């Protein structure tokens, strides 16, 4: 990330001051690929650190759910029942008018 920011600043400042960019597009792409590859290799070769007891308390599994699904399902069922009652009442009124 630092390399990308530095490269961006060098290209921008030289393009503003000199009028032409110091690197071609292909050179910029190659520099980006090489630096990102080296960063990925550095991250992949870090040693594994097992979780401690303190870390287990911070996991997502222990967090409260975002929505209570069972409550939502009950609300939908009640809505369906209410809709059905409303339809039945409407049908009764229509049949009484006939």
Walk me through the topology:
Blueprint: H1 2-17, H2 25-44, H3 53-56, H4 69-97
Give an overview of the whole structure:
The protein has 2 domains: about 1-50; about 65-98. Helix content is about 70%, strand content about 0%. It contains 4 helices and no strands. It has helices at about 1-15, 25-45, 55, 70-95.
Keywords:
98 residues, mainly alpha, 70% helix, elongated
Put the structure in a nutshell.
This protein has 98 residues and is an all-alpha fold. Helix content is 70%, strand content 0%. It is built from four helices and no strands.
How far apart lie the N and C ends? 77 Å
What is the averaged pLDDT score?
Answer: 77
Can you tell me the number of structural domains? 2
Question: Hey, roughly how much beta strand do the residues contain?
Answer: under 5%
Shape: elongated
Total number of beta strands:
0
Unreliable stretches (pLDDT < 50, length at least 5) are: none
Structural class: mainly alpha
Please state the CA-atom Rg, rounded to the nearest Å.
32 Å
Individual helix count: 4
Percentage of residues assigned to helices = over 70%
Biggest sheet character: none
Q: What sequence of helices (H) and strands (E) makes up the elements? A: HHHH
């Amino acid at each position: 990330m630092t390399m990308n920011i530095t490269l961006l600043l060098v290209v921008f400042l030289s393009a503003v001051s000199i009028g032409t960019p110091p690197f071609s597009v292909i050179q910029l792409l190659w520099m980006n690929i090489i630096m990102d590859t080296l960063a990925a290799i550095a991250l992949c070769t870090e040693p594994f650190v097992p979780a401690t007891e303190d870390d287990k308390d911070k996991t997502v599994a222990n967090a409260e759910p975002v929505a209570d699904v069972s409550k939502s399902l009950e609300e939908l069922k009640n809505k369906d029942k209410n809709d059905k009652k409303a339809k039945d009442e409407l049908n009764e009124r229509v049949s009484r008018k006939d």
